[in-house]
Amino acid sequence: MRFKFLLLLGILAFGGCSKDDVKPISKSGFVRISAQVDERVRLKAALVVDSYDVNITSKTDADFSYGKKVSEIGANPIELAVGDYTVKVSSPSVTLPDFGTPLYGVTQDFSVAAGATTSLSLVCKQTNAGVKVIYSDSFKKYCADNSIAYSTTIEQAGSSLSYASSESRVGYFNPGDVNVVVLVGDKEYASKLALVAQDLVNLTIDLAPEDPSKVVLTITGVDDVNTRDEKIVISLKPTTTETLKLSEDFASVTTGNSTDSDGSRSSWSGNENFPTVAKAYQAGGALKLGVDGTEGKIISKTLDLSANNGNVTVKVKVKGWTSVESDLKIKVGSVEKVVPYTAIMLNAFEEVTATFPGAGTATSTVTITSATKRLFVDEIRVFN
User: Are residues 370 and 253 in the same domain?
Assistant: First the structure.
């Protein structure tokens, strides 16, 4: 997005003035300035050109300077001695970074010649760059389901803007590098982003669809000159500080199968890892939980999940019946979450992940439940 206005400077020589014009002195001319908004620009709000600053400096006379607002100049001519000059037009200055403040300006050299008329057409372009942070619906749902707070901070030259989860404004920065830090829970993910004047960058934070434990930052420039696409992938998988506290792959279950509706009729009575069961059936290296219309569940042995501030991650391989007819519920202590999945009986198992910040205690149990009807589970891992 860029805002423009047209600035016309007419350098009028003595011979071009009417009798009503101001009489120039020898070896001088006049600058007549008018400003207007370029009608080709689409504006969100009115652009007040009258508030812009006009500054003229001489290349040959270091002591000369001229500065006024556009509104102060109006249609009045400005008398200048013959020579070389620089004109700078700019919107009112703002300390950056700042929300909602695009800046515009242009600088151009010109000359005043005796007995000649010079006209300049100047287009003010955006001189800073905007960044808008967007959190995708899937990312927001993942964080909400797992009670994870999140925000983004963008820093430049010691100053920063913080984009909370509800922030929708555009933040503006000077051209150059910025540091982007995404805070997800208690973890920080840092990257750099190079900004160019006239950029308006949509920074979208999203979950990678092929891996629910990753976050993707998609950076898309919408300026017609500086368009670009970038991706930064952040992994939310258990870190090396998390310890595997329970692993069960049901390798000892040799009866039945999970590939047809008649292959899982034999009851399963539990094992050392999951001693408490209800409506659980053997399915050849896996379990079927539930029967038509009735939930099934398995409950783990008591686990000490108090380490790492009680933060717990549970991974389960799951697939449905001939269709997905039941939700998968995972419970750690008193905190229960519904975890979506799409795989069905004829598919391979799909691994899903649920995190439970602060839910673990020294005497926790983990419960895996088919909420209403039937589903299959395999390879359950609990990290703390």
Answer: yes
